[in-house]
Amino acid sequence: MTNCIGCGRETVNPRATRCKSCSNRENNLGRIPWNKGLTKETVERVRININPLYGRKLSKESIKKRKESRMKNGWWKNFDKTSKKMSFSRTGEKNVNWNGGSSFEPYDKCFNNKFKRAIRKRDNQVCMLCGIHREKINQAFDVHHINYDKLMSIKENCISLCRSCHFSTNVNREHWTKFFQSILSKNYGYRYSEKDIILDVGVENVQQINFGGNGKSQIGER
Fold this sequence. Notes:
elongated, disordered C terminus, His-Me finger endonuclease fold, alpha+beta, two-stranded antiparallel ribbon, 222 residues, four-stranded antiparallel beta sheet
C-alpha cells in the first residue's frame, strides 16, 4: 500500500500517487462552477430545463409506469444483439492487439502448477510490476512468459504478475520484454543479451538460448 503525496493517507490503488479526495481536488483547481454568479431563480430554471421533473415528487404508480416504458422502449431493448455486433467487430484480425492467434498456441509440458508455484514463491507472492501482495487480491498471480514464447517455460523467462498488470503487457511487447528482463537481472542475477537468455549450468558448460528470427527458442552451447 502506498501513501498519498498530498495528505499522507493510504491509497486504495497501490499504483496511485494520490487518494481520491486529493485527486478530485487537484482536478477541480481553476475550474469555475457553472452556477457561479447566477441567482437562485436562474439556477432553478436551468435545472428544470435540463430535467423537467426536477423538484417534483412522483407517485409510486408514475414511477412504475416510467420503468415499464423504459423497459419496453429503452436502448437496452436490442442490447444483446448490439453487444454481439460490437464484440464481433473487435475480435480476431479486426482487433488492434491481434498477434496472429498466439493466445491459442499450446504451452509446453513444463508449464504446470508446480512450476507456476515455484515462480510465485521465488517472487515472494508479489506482482513484479505494481508490487501488490497476493493476500490483498485473494487470487493467485499469473505467470507471464517474458519473451511471449509459450514453449520456453524456464525461470529466467517467467515472472509473476497480477491479472491487471498481465493484461497491460499485451501491447508494446518489446518494451515489456526488456523491462522484465532488467527486473529479473537485478533481483536474481539472470543474464541476458539483446536477443538471448544466458543460462549458467556449469563452470565450463554455459548454454545460450537464442530467440531466433521466428521468435522460437533455439538452444546452443558456447
